[in-house]
Amino acid sequence: MHDTKIEYSSAAKWLHWSVAIGIFVLLWLGLQQAGMERGPEKLELRALHASVALIVLALMAVRLVWRFLNGVPAHPDGIPGWQRAASTLVHWGLYISVFVQLISGSMTVATGGNALPFFGLFSVALPIVENDESHEFWEEIHEFSWVIIAVLLIVHVLAALYNHFVLKNNVLRRITIGVRKGS
Ligand code: HEM
Ligand code: HEM
Question: Residue 78 CB: number of other CB atoms within 10 A?
């Protein structure tokens, strides 16, 4: 179950890919509603966006705890120092920017005087007072920080593809199908 020296555990793999899918869905839903006219459809899409985001928030919290308890596999041999540093920086950059996005989204809703919806089943009211100024502040952060996530994500995916297809090492396999025996 624990992350071994060369491969991620199945829990870490599931958490990585479910969060990744969640974030792609959130980027799509967020941008989709941004382009819509005011009205009930826009509000519905926003509520769906916020509901999916609550799942991602829960998964990210579990993931962060898992990472602190289990760590991550060491870099494969022969990776230059600057690439190791860049990889660590991008991974932590992703954690931070995703949390900023989750917090700013929740604060946008809460300072707007609303509870966080969850698929119409229940809603979570944060102990935050409605306030126009802070609403605008958090909204601006939320409308900007997804760009940081997108840029880091592009670097992250290109690095994964470079490792897999150019360096031909186990970096992509160790978080997907697993490292082949003897490699
Ligand atoms: C990783 C998590 C998240 C991602 C990637 C994300 C992404 C986005 C994007 C791309 C937009 C459109 C921004 C724009 O208009 O330029 C947006 C808008 C919005 N998001 Fe999120 N979001 C996330 C989490 C949340 C959470 C946790 C909530 C609330 C519970 C939330 C509530 C909203 C709201 C209310 C808007 C509309 C704000 C506005 O008026 O522009 N988001 N989100
Ligand atoms: C929004 C989506 C994504 C986020 C937030 C994300 C974040 C992360 C983070 C933080 C790690 C470090 C391990 C950990 O702490 O769990 C990681 C590892 C990894 N990710 Fe992603 N990732 C995303 C999407 C992707 C995609 C689409 C690919 C595929 C091309 C990918 C490929 C990898 C690989 C290969 C590793 C292992 C790197 C290593 O072991 O050094 N990720 N990801």
Answer: 7
pLDDT surpasses 70 at 148:
yes
| Distance from residue 16's CA to the centre of ligand 2 (Å) | 6
Evaluate whether residue 2 is within a structural domain. Answer: no
In a domain, 180, yes or no: no
For residue 65, with 0-12 CB atoms within 10 Å meaning exposed, 13-18 middle and 19 or more buried, which class applies? exposed
Cβ(53) to ligand 2 under 6 A? no
Q: Return the residue whose CA atom lies nearest to atom 32 of ligand 1.
A: 105
Q: How many residues in the chain? A: 183
Q: pTM of the entire structure?
A: 0.94
Distance 137 CA to ligand 1 centre (A): 13
> How many domains, the chain?
1
- Note the pLDDT tens digit of each residue in 18-45: 999 999 999 999 999 999 999 999 999 9
Q: Which domain holds residue 49?
A: 10-175
Average pLDDT value for the chain: 95
